[in-house]
Design a protein that fits this description.
Keywords: Signal
Radius of gyration: 38 Å
Distance between the termini: 52 Å
Number of domains: 3
Largest sheet: 16 strands, mixed
CATH class of the largest domain: Mainly Beta
Length: 1171
């Protein structure tokens, strides 16, 4: 493909065109025009044609547009009203047209036409044809009238296809039309047509493209703003001209037509206005028959001396009378939804407050850049006020009991408390159009939306809705410390709250409350209640402190329901809190809270919504907490409890204040958050809230960066934070949490409110906003101290773990950590150490002798996350060798030894005492003791794969062996996959676990012995098809079946998906077990209770409630006692049907569940392997 490049740096930036210049199809060329280039012509015979099959690639920028102009313009000799100094630009394409040679059907390859002024052939059957790109291109002082039928427009798009990109294009002072489309399918946006002598925009021959953001201004000469045909001589020719145009601003000339649609053209016109023309609209010929079908108008205001012309039968007027949001008198209208595929731009006209013409168009050519529909007075129901700084104002009534729309062009003034609707009576909707500003002048001016009414305030990024003080707009001025110029915005809803009149129950219709500062009743039982929508809304300089108990926040959401949409909202410089939620269920995204004098964000009264993407910049001159949050003062356990989720928050704090303060019984789940620059980062205040740590107060993916992290002396909070693997107390890096399945959160890969590459505050939010994006220090290169560097594994560095670790060690991301033989952490209750494993770390072994042992008195802290689990696996799994579905035994496994009671003792020792200890299998260390609450650390989001070793029948390595491990050890979200022996085995101890996945293990999936007395909830077992024994095999003690302490765990919410040749559950050798909400299916037999001792425990220490058994044989063998028990057990089915779930023990461990089985789909997440 031949390419001609025009560079602004060559020949002073000029390319001089002399005569007709064409890029021909035969050359199959691309004409590339560099940004900032200028192409000039000297006579009306100088014009540029891009032939079919060729392209022009003219991509300028706002700072360096590409200019096609006359030489007089370059030399500075051009007059303001000059036109026709050169020809113009013609682009020919292969897209469909409808003006064909005789006998040829429109839209076919044979349907072609010769362009005017001998400008080349165009037309064809390729609607997606690509003739290149015009972006930031200005065509000025062109045009030629060879004769009435041969004219050159500024730009003629002749059969140009939709693959062509046209954006930010101006035609100024053309002698004929500005732009004309001759058929084709090309679309355009950001089009400026100024000062053109004939029609500003013209189309014919079946054009079916679209335009969004069209500005037209006639100057000293012009005909129609738009003159449009389908086809002269055959008005119903196909394809019919049928463009979509939205967001048009059209300023005409008196005595001329605004829009002239004729000769069978259709159009869908929306969100536009036409002013100043002699006649706004003229529809003739076959086009009149398309009214309401292929010719539609909506969201459009016509403000001309005469609205329509040549409408003798009244059809046009009648259509406009019924059209959606059309004014024939230049009145304010609301935007409608366009029919085409457009950007969301819910405003009237081309701008919405954003002057996108600035900087690149011909200087002085655009008189109304950024302009809205000119004001035609105040909406019905409001009162005209005086101008404010040159803009008309309308005074809002203090009671609004019918729907009211505030359209652009005026300021709207609050005079005292303005209330929309009565309390669930006389309900009304206040619609606030994009770009509107509402003002108040003192602390008594505030806006209240009553229960049952709505506010629909949907601004745009280019035209936010603003509520502010009068001094901000009247020229008086404001300062960085200005606050309290007016009251604020209050929205009341019918959603649940927990602060009720005496005798009422929280969350019911009777539980209501009067808002502060006499702002109305709120509360109810409708969690999904809708109070409307706030989108791209900025509240500035508000707030009122009537007294310590009566304050007005920037926005108070009082009992507001989840049906309310809140997105892209800012509160700036409020005198009290920025936003406060008083109960309710409303959620929000993209919140900006800056410069507020009290707390930036506050909640109380049982708020249960969510926030994602929250920026808080605390004021330097006056601020309290970034967040202050309560459940309820005076009744800290009131229900419904405040328990929001907040993800992707950044707090840039005040160095004298706290970041977040949670008190009075509130819960909070906080993810992907960065808090910096406060004196202290976090305070959890009071016994009630401290009691929720780890249950209803949760942190994951949080980095605290303050001189003191914890406010005051709070050992419970400090201990909880210390236990979290994905929380940094030094401002260090943390892993983003996978938010999938958490409400309507979006999953992101960054910490803080915004990805620095995508500043969602830009353009609409006020002030210099610090996004608070953390600049985490890079992880140190190389291996941690005490570890030897190994060879790279598949391109990743490796570190060889020492076989004895007797000092604390942390394994950080970026390396593989290699087991070389048995690696032991600590001595037996001596030289104790903690092995900390960061989220996302992988530990590998290469043979069955490579295994990891945590000794008594030492700890493992392996806290992965749902998106970055800690993994222990075989070398072949990571080095590229590969594994198979049946791979097992690549390395040994994980052994944890503790000091908790066991029952298999040396001769003469008593079970559960310090003397009762035992050596673990495969020489894995001593375990057992008398400390039931012993802690061996934590496993959280840990996956163990391809492990296991069968040294001999009595010496085996399980995936994880918990040997005498105590209840102080935290185990949650763990998986053992494809182990050569058992998946998990508990050898005595008291440790509990939740969210356990056991898949593909070759022996028993779950095993226990030696007096284990822990608890499990949410266990999901998938037995291997190729090799498996029991789903569960469980003993008390071999050789002494009544040894104490007796194995007697409690298990709830378990699913076993079995091997068709094996048992589901086998209880033997004196074990007890309490099983609730259990489902067993796919095994040959579901359950076996084996031996007289265990059979004797049925109904006493062996209890089953709410179980679904779905196996060919439920009971293994001839066990009449077990069969009789099952036949009489509560909610036990033996046909695979699902019974009613059991009520679980209220012991602080078990979560309430109405599911029989593991409920796996609700918690499995992406961390689980292979399922």
């Amino acid at each position: 493909m031949n390419r001609t490049k025009l560079y602004s740096a060559v020949a002073a930036g000029l390319l001089v065109s002399t005569g007709y210049s064409a890029q021909s199809q035969a050359q199959s060329c691309v004409l590339e025009v560099a940004k900032g280039a200028t192409i000039v012509g000297a006579t009306n015979e100088d014009f540029l044609v891009i032939e079919q099959g060729c392209q022009i690639r003219a991509e300028g920028t706002a700072e360096q547009p590409i200019n096609f102009t006359a030489d007089k313009a370059v030399t500075g000799e051009v007059e303001n009203n000059e036109r026709g100094l050169w020809g113009g630009l013609v682009i020919n394409g292969f897209a469909p047209i409808n003006d064909c040679p005789e006998g040829v059907a429109g839209g076919t390859a044979e349907c072609t036409k010769e362009g005017e002024a001998n400008s080349g052939l165009f037309g064809g059957d390729d609607p997606a044809d690509n003739s290149g790109i015009l972006k930031y291109v200005v065509v000025s002082y062109a045009g030629s009238n060879v004769d009435p039928e041969n004219q050159l427009n500024g730009i003629a798009f002749q059969g140009v296809g939709s693959g062509t990109e046209v954006d930010y294009v101006q035609v100024h002072n053309n002698l004929d039309d500005g732009i004309e489309f001759f058929g084709g399918t090309v679309s355009a946006s950001h089009v400026v047509l100024t000062g053109n002598a004939d029609d500003s925009l013209d189309w014919t021959d079946g054009w079916q493209g679209s335009i969004q953001y069209l500005y037209m201004e006639q100057k000293d000469s012009g005909d129609n703003l738009i003159e449009a045909d389908n086809r002269e001589g055959d008005e119903n020719a196909e394809p019919r001209s049928l463009p979509d145009i939205t967001n048009m601003s059209a300023y005409g000339l008196g005595g001329e037509n605004g829009l002239r649609f004729r000769r069978g053209t259709g159009i869908h016109l929306t969100n536009s206005f036409v002013v100043d023309s002699g006649t706004c609209l003229r529809i003739g010929g076959e086009s009149r028959n398309l009214l309401g079908t292929d010719l539609t108008i909506g969201g459009t205001s016509f403000g001309c001396a005469e609205t329509h012309r040549d409408d003798d039968d009244g059809a046009v007027e009648a259509y406009l009378d019924t059209a959606e949001e059309v004014s024939q008198t230049g009145g304010q209208v609301n935007p409608v939804t366009p029919s085409g595929d457009f950007e969301s731009a819910p405003f009237i006209g081309a701008f919405g407050g954003d002057d996108w013409t600035a900087g690149w168009t011909v200087a002085g050519s655009v008189s109304n850049g950024g302009g809205d529909l000119p004001s035609t007075g105040c909406p019905a129901g409001t009162t005209e006020g005086g101008d404010i700084n040159g803009t008309p104002s309308c005074i809002l009534p203090q009671s609004i009991t019918s729907d009211l729309t505030l359209s652009s062009g005026n300021f709207y003034v609050l005079d005292g408390k303005v209330v929309v609707g009565g309390d669930n009576a006389d309900s009304a909707t206040l619609t606030v159009n994009a770009g509107v500003t509402i003002v108040g002048d003192d602390a008594e001016d505030f806006l209240v939306i009553s229960r049952g009414s709505q506010i629909v305030a949907n601004g745009t990024a280019n035209a936010p809705i603003t509520l502010t003080g009068l001094a901000d707009v009247d020229g008086t001025g404001v300062s960085d410390a200005t606050r309290g110029l007016w009251g604020g915005l209050v929205i009341n809803g019918n959603a649940p709250i927990n602060d009720c009149p005496e005798g009422a129950v929280g969350g019911t219709d009777e539980c209501t409350k009067e808002g502060e500062a006499n702002s109305g009743l709120f509360g109810g039982s409708d969690a999904s209640d809708s109070s409307g929508s706030l989108k791209y809304v900025v509240v500035k300089y508000a707030g009122s402190n009537v007294d310590p108990e009566n304050q007005l926040n920037g926005i108070a959401f009082q009992g507001v329901g989840s049906g309310t949409m809140v997105d892209y909202v800012q509160v700036h410089n409020n005198l009290d809190d920025g936003i406060e939620f008083f109960g309710g269920t409303v959620s929000a995204k993209h919140l900006v809270l800056t410069g507020n004098a009290d707390d930036s964000l506050d909640w109380t009264d049982g708020w249960q919504g969510n926030i994602q993407y929250l920026v808080i910049n605390q004021a330097a001159d006056s601020a309290d907490n970034g967040i202050e949050a309560d459940n309820r003062e005076g009744d800290e356990n009131a229900m419904p409890r405040s328990a929001p989720m907040i993800a992707n928050m950044s707090i840039v704090g005040n160095p004298g204040e706290r970041g977040v303060r949670f008190r009075r019984g509130t819960g909070i789940r906080m993810y992907n958050t960065y808090i910096t620059d406060n004196a202290t980062c976090i305070d959890v205040d009071g016994d009630t809230s401290n009691g929720l740590l780890g249950t209803e107060i949760l942190f994951d993916g949080v980095s605290f960066n303050c001189p003191e992290v914890v406010d005051g002396d709070n050992p419970e909070l400090q201990s909880y934070l210390d236990s979290l693997g994905n929380v940094s107390q030094t401002g260090g890096s943390v892993m983003p949490v996978d938010l999938a399945g958490m409400g309507d959160f979006e999953t992101v890969d960054f910490i803080g409110a915004a990805d620095p590459a995508n500043d969602w505050t830009a353009g609409w939010a006020f002030g210099d906003i610090d996004l608070g994006s953390p600049d985490f220090p890079a992880e140190p290169a190389g291996c941690p101290d005490g570890i030897t560097e190994g060879d790279d594994i598949n391109g990743t560095p490796s570190c060889l773990l020492p076989q004895s670790i007797i000092a604390d060690m942390q394994l950080t991301m970026g390396n593989y950590y290699v087991l070389d033989g048995k690696v032991t952490v600590g001595g037996d209750n001596t030289d104790s150490a903690t092995l900390t494993i960061d989220a996302g770390v992988t530990i590998v072994g290469d043979d069955a002798e490579d295994f990891l042992v945590i000794s008594r008195g030492s700890r493992i802290v392996a806290n992965g996350t749902a998106t970055a689990p800690v993994t222990l696996t075989g070398l072949a799994d990571v080095d590229g060798s590969g594994v198979a579905p049946v791979t097992r035994g690549l390395w040994g496994g994980l052994v944890i030894n503790g000091n908790a009671p066991i029952n298999d003792c040396p001769e003469g020792a008593q079970g559960g005492t310090v003397e009762c200890t035992k050596e673990g299998e495969a020489n894995s260390g001593l375990f057992g003791g008398a400390d039931a609450a012993d802690s061996s650390g934590s496993l959280n989001y840990v996956v163990v794969k391809y492990a296991g070793s069968n040294v001999d029948p009595e010496n085996q390595l399980n995936g994880i062996a918990f040997q005498g491990v105590g209840s102080g050890t935290m185990v949650d979200f763990i998986q053992v996959h494809n182990n050569l022996d058992d998946g998990i085995e508990f050898f005595g101890g008291t440790v509990d676990a939740k969210h356990v996945v056991l898949s593909g293990n070759a022996d028993d999936s779950l095993d226990w012995t030696d007096g284990w007395q822990g608890r499990l909830q949410y266990v999901h077992i998938v037995q291997a098809d190729d090799s498996a024994d029991n789903g569960i095999e469980a003993d008390n003690r071999e050789g002494d079946e009544n040894a104490e302490p007796r194995s007697n765990p409690t298990i709830a919410n378990m699913s076993i998906m079995g091997n068709s040749g094996e048992r589901g559950i086998r209880l033997r050798r004196g074990t007890g077990a309490d099983l609730y909400n259990v489902m067993v299916s796919g095994n040959a037999t579901c359950i076996d209770v084996d031996g007289d001792t265990s059979i004797g425990l049925i109904g006493m220490d062996i209890n089953i409630e709410s179980a679904s058994f779905g196996c060919p044989e439920v009971v293994d063998g001839d066990n009449a006692d077990l069969q009789i028990y099952l036949d009489g057990a509560v909610n036990v089915t033996q046909d695979g049907s699902i019974p009613t779930a059991a009520t679980l023990p209220s012991d602080g461990f078990f979560e309430s569940s109405d599911v029989v089985g593991s409920d796996f789909d609700s918690w499995k997440g992406s961390w689980v392997f292979g399922l």
